[in-house]
Amino acid sequence: MTAAVLDRPLRAPLGRLLAAEVRWTLRRPRTIIALAALALAPVLMGIGIAIAGEGSRGGPGGLFGALAGNGFVLPIVAMYMLLPVLLPLLGSMAAADALAGESAHGTLRGLLLAPVSRGRLLAVKAFGVAVVVWLGVLVVALSGVVTGLVLVGSNGLITLSGTTLSVADALLRIGLAVLWVGFQVFAVASIALAVSAWTEHPLVVLAVALAFVLVSAVVSALPNTEWIQPYLLPTGWMSLTDVLRDPVPGTELLRSTVKALCYSVIGLSLAYGRLSTKDG
Amino acid sequence: MNRKRASVTAAVAGTVVGVAGLAVLAMPASAGSAPVLPAVSAEQLVQSVLTTKSVPAFAGTVRGTNNLGLPSVPGLGEAGKFLANSSAEVRIWSDGEGRGKLELPSNSGSESIVYDGKTLWDWKSSDHTVRKSEQSPAEHREHPQAASDPATAAKQIIELISKDSTVKVDGTATVAGRSVYQLVLAPKPSERTMLREVRISVDAETKLPLQLSVYGNGSADPVLQIGFSELTIGAQDASLFQFTPPANATVTTAEPKQDKAKDFPGDAASKTVGEGWDTVLVGKLPTTGATDKSGRSQDPMALLKQIAKPVSGAWGSGYTIGASIGNAVVTQDGRYAVGAVPLQVLTNALEQSK
């Protein structure tokens, strides 16, 4: 009877695996330091705008101008400013540690030898990366909301369209922005995860992922590249300011989310392809 | 190993799905087969457009594209952007009973214009200002913004050029997800114009003109195009057509408007030569130097020297600016001629009007 039980492969419950992966990721000092540094960014922006006072103009989409006396705009501005480089950097760092880092330490071998399907292993790793990504965005948003309320003050959110939203609606808009930014960053992290499966040097993963983001941004700014622009991730990133319009023009937000999902599918498929053919 | 091959297949399939998804996203939205609609004659279509007096309640996005190929003028700033090849988008709402809302997104923020039936509110997010003006609906219709409504623009054009053009219905298409008839206005062969045709897409159901495209000779893409890129016809939320100035805004009340057209000096001195497609507008530039925003006076001739090329002939000498569907000539003594015609027709017109 005992033998019959042992014949069946032992399966740890998925919840426990995911919790273990998240604990493992979040206990790394570099993750905590990165999150803390991200939390500092909205505070610095808030101080800068408070010092500049009413005279502040410009900024992405005229957002600095919209910030005056309008604290709930700060988290959106902060996410907008961090999206092009720093948030993808956080996601790539998590992705680099997830596979290439384990490979460098020799711990990936243990996981590959274990009687676990490679798909399951990748799913757990990708979940850990996703948690870091959305946590990072959430930290920026929360820090932005608190800083905005303390330094700039607000009685609700004045949209770019000139309407005033209640606090609950404002928080809903910020929540929407967190969700959307998370998808964009996770798309970059998925590409990083694919590279991570192919190499055992975490630095290579970081370099490739950042190069991917920066080259995309440079190409999307070049003239006569209209034909390739719809394929690039950063071309959709301007649409974050759409959450500050009323009613929200959903088309561009939705299109860039689907684009990010396509990139995620490509990245995770490539990672799975490499991981499933890897010998222990 | 079978299992390994299966997982590689899955990985390849996943990658292909992702790339295909990107390709679908990148495809222009208008791609698709022409819808099948009952046949209609050009006269019926034009008439049904002209008799459609009421605009239904709708929400939409109007997109204008400009490939005129005009030279970029230094020192115009934001306005220069609209002269050079560009495209711009305006979001537009109507409740079908005269109230409406326009939103013009730009890099420096956003401008909203709301007409609530009595008051016209103009909000600029970049400097938190609200301009409020009391206007009767009739005056509102003459607001310059109305020209960005394709319904108005297309109607004006049909009325203007129907006598010198061949008008026909050239198949069907899809604009902003709606089935449309394509009304094509082409110049009669006797017309000396640089325009090839004007194509108006008329919604099959509501008979609203949804898109206006102007084609020049020798180019497959429209030179000018204004039309809905998104359109939903149906009742709109009433709160869209109300505006309460936000707490941090500066509200100014506009003075009753003067008729600005009378003040424009060039207008009184101008006349048209020829008719139909080869109409040429001939006139005299104001002699006083124009001043730009910062109060510096600008010599129009000095500016022309930078952007135009010199021409001369029996009519005199001057400078010409060419665009892909028309030309303009300014003579040394300050006369000008503009039209959607070759340069030769312009100089003939200048000679005639001497």
Automatic annotation (TrEMBL), chain A:
The keyword Transmembrane helix applies. The keyword Transmembrane applies. Keywords: Membrane, Transmembrane, Transmembrane helix. GO terms for cellular component: plasma membrane. GO terms for molecular function: ABC-type transporter activity. The chain crosses the membrane at residues 32-52, 72-100, 121-151, 171-196, 203-222. PANTHER family: INTEGRAL MEMBRANE PROTEIN-RELATED, MEMBRANE PROTEIN. This is ABC-2 type transport system permease protein.
UniProtKB/TrEMBL annotation, chain B:
Residues 126-144 have a biased composition (Basic and acidic residues). Transmembrane segments: none annotated. Signal peptide: none annotated. Residues 126-151 are annotated as: Disordered. Residues 160-235 form the MucB/RseB N-terminal domain. InterPro entries: LolA/LolB/LppX, MucB/RseB_N, Sporulation_related. This is MucB/RseB N-terminal domain-containing protein. It comes from the Bacteria.
